[in-house]
Amino acid sequence: MDVLRSLRAVSAASGPGVVDWDRAAEAAKASTDPGSLALSAADRAGYAADVRDARTRIRDVARLDFDVPDAIEVQNRHHWIDASVDTFRNVMEPIEAAAVGDDGVAAGSVSTPTLSLDLSRVVNTGSMAFALGFLARNVLGQYDPLLLADEPDADHGLYFVHPNVVAVAAALDVDFPRFRRWIAFHEVTHAAEFGAAPWLPEYLESRVERGVDGLSAGGIDPAAFAELQTAMTAVEGYAEVLMDRAFDDEYADLRRKLDERRGGGGPVQRIARRLLGLGLKRRQYERGAAFFERVVDARGIEAAGTVWDRPATLPTSAELDDPDAWLVRVDP
Prior knowledge:
Layout: H1 3-11, H2 21-30, H3 41-62, E1 72-75, H4 77-99, H5 113-136, E2 141-144, E3 157-161, H6 162-172, H7 176-196, H8 200-216, H9 222-246, H10 252-263, H11 267-275, H12 278-299, H13 301-304, H14 317-320, H15 323-330
Parallel strand pairs: 1-3
Antiparallel strand pairs: 2-3
């Protein structure tokens, strides 16, 4: 890590936007150890086998028709930053456009507008660098549906951040191949969701765009954010329940230890998680999992997959806390 180089990158932020994305990525990588990507032949074969077996097991258990992306990448932390920065950029683009007028002056500036925008850009670039670096050090695996991608037909991505998987397996004192396999099952369940619901990326994109448009206009679209949060709660909750039922080994210790990790860490980590909304993500896991546990107990795992039939079969926010009401409405 080179903290000084990271600070220099942030202080050199420039350009027309409120974030210098190239400098943010540079600063994030400078402050983040990339980690070793020295994979043995067994490691490479293990990742491939885990994904392949997860796909087969999930298809059989959930009766969902899906496939995994052609591109499955085993990355280090710097690779993850490079793969993710465009997603951040695409989400922020409407807000940046509203914050900076056609003349490059920050909206609402009265005095010294250029200096104000320059300082704001440095602060924003530093914030994004911090977020990218923190996530790169903590993400284990990721199924990326490439929401808001510049190329609508681009293939989805499936990533494993190998140094993090190795480090967390050691920190939790669990067998690395079993832990790696469990992470693979989790990410492949996300591929199953998006494969079973081809309408889902457009649904999520439209809610993101409506919400961001509202913010950039100085207001807010609470319905868009509520629908987005409800859908993501379903995505995370279904994945939690399905991976446990499809996984072909003992997992109770993995579940317990990883849940403790999600809520643990030192003071700096806890503050960072709160600032980045990761506490909300944990609540999504828990709330969504409770909903699907009830549905699966009542009707079975195949019935739970009905949520991916069409947007109307997604649970409402109220139904997430009252699964029986969803069962009555949808009757899977």
